[in-house]
Amino acid sequence: xxxxxxxxxxxxxxxxxxxxxxxxxxxxxxxxxxxxxxxxxxxxxxxxxxxxxxxxxxxxxxxxxxxxxxxxxxxxxxxxxxxxxxxxxxxxxxxxxxxxxxxxxxxxxxxxxxxxxxxxxxxxxxxxxxxxxxxxxxxxxxxxxxxxxxxxxxxxxxxxxxxxxxxxxxxxxxxxxxxxxxxxxxxxxxxxxxxxxxxxxxxxxxxxxxxxxxxxxxxxxxxxxxxxxxxxxxxxxxxxxxxxxxxxxxxxxxxxxxxxxxxxxxxxxxxxxxxxxxxxxxxxx
Length: 285
Known about the structure:
Blueprint: H1 2-36, H2 54-60, H3 66-93, H4 101-113, H5 116-135, H6 148-172, H7 177-185, H8 190-201, H9 203-218, H10 222-227, H11 239-247, H12 253-284
Helix pairs in contact: 2-12, 3-6, 3-9, 3-11, 4-6, 6-9, 9-12, 11-12
């Protein structure tokens, strides 16, 4: 028994560095931020006062929050659908052998490894110099308040579709080939094979991918910040940028922390519900 306990302690020591790092980087800042959310701290002063739920009340009565909510939801819906649908279709299309298939997969995945800044520069050039020529428009998508979120979403889809393709492609490799052969013998069309074999057996990949990009979209900060800095005006400001602005430029850290806390709870609830739904579907199949 003593020998077994010693072995368990030895195993535990291997995770201690990671555990300490997690506590220092995630747990401690979260607890600190939870405390600040109920204060009027400006982020600089050494003292602050507790204001109870006043920040929460101000948050739910702030009409300026409507545009960041709309922008965030639009970005999340567009990117989640497009990345997963096109990633799955590319994985299915490339799940065969032909000359250059590996080079083509590498080419599709390549945007994922370039920096976000470079991606934004490339697409700003495309939107401002190429789109007007091709579509006879006066300006790019990023310069129009009504199309800026679609333009940012396209950048995200282009950059991250390769990752979705790789995940779905890996899932396709776990599906036994004889299931498709049996289906073809029974006269099943390609569409029937896709809907009755491929999709159900790829549910573990859906369980990972869909909550991943929903959560990423709801807390999106990088793409609009790099591409437009929230502009034109505030037409591409997301919820995460709303939190950032109150934390730093506006010097209302207490209110910003409350907004961040509400956003965290919302994302947690949404992703847990969606993940649980797909987990149940996995069991059914």
